[in-house]
Amino acid sequence: MAGNTAGFGEMMYLLVLGGLVLLLIGGEALVRGSVSVARKLNISELVIGLTLVGFGTSVPELVTSLQAVDKGAVGIAIGNVVGSNIANIFLVLALAAIISPVLVHPNALARDGTFMIAVTGVLCALLWFDQFNRLSGILLLALLIAYLAYSLIADQRRQSAAAELHKAEGESVEAHYGLGAGLAIAVAGLAGVVIGANLLVTGATSLARSIGISETVIGLTIVAVGTSLPELATSIVAAYRKRGDVALGNIIGSNIFNILGILGITSLVSPFTIRGDITADALAGAEPVSIISSVDVGALVLSAGLLMLFAMTGRKIARWEGAVLLLGYILYMGLTFDLIPTVNLIPNV
Hints:
Blueprint: H1 2-40, H2 45-56, H3 59-70, H4 74-99, E1 102-103, H5 106-129, H6 134-157, H7 161-171, H8 179-211, H9 215-227, H10 229-240, H11 244-269, H12 278-283, H13 294-312, E2 316-317, H14 319-336
Antiparallel strand pairs: 1-2
Helix pairs in contact: 1-2, 1-8, 2-6, 2-7, 2-11, 3-4, 3-8, 3-11, 4-9, 4-10, 4-11, 4-13, 4-14, 5-7, 5-11, 5-13, 6-11, 7-11, 8-9, 10-11, 13-14
């Protein structure tokens, strides 16, 4: 009996590890294959940087959230998006800045950074009112399309700093395969992401149940960091090449896609609630409580706020500021795993 339990435990960890590896490799292959095909079709680096790079690195989060909701693991689905946005700034950007200070062009950051702050506010409102229905999904996707259309038109009309940054994001992806090879790599990458997401969700769900913590915590931590591995790899490489501005642009774009694209598609395909088991709570005479806590919302808002603060003052994110961001992630992990006592200040959250 003990042998069976040990074997099951090893299998869970193997599923999680295998899923993470496939997400990283598949996500990278999907981006490179898609970018290569786009170049063969003479699509500009500006369009590639604004759309394919940002969306491509968010595909692991999208597929993982869709599969999690389909399997009833809502905590993993929403935790994945919220946790990924937090990890992108507090972990990924922090490590990039520690490796090499991230130079910032305020004019390039103004539009996309401000929009990221705005959609983060939209996410907070959706979390507060628990409105992850089809109407919300349609509105989120419409907002994403409008943002991309406006950005493309504005950038092509005038070669602004933002346009140059998006162009650099596209050029940062080294992919120059033939049309057939690029398409094959993209398809193989997508298959890897789908299989990896399935393994990760299955393993993460079993892991949460076996060690007695919520699926949401697993989603906010292990799954979120795992699906952020493409952003981490891209940002680390950019930092070593002294192109931290590209890493910053990629992170901002990914956070926007996570909120508008991933939650938009997920809400449209499979509407869900984050208020836990509403029926069971109602029968027990209790008020349904959100599976996303005030600590999670606070970390989400603080990370976005610190990014803008550090980026807009001094024209760079220095190593010490990267260390502050990383400290923020360490503190957030401590709060998430109850290593630091918390006080819930927001009702029903």
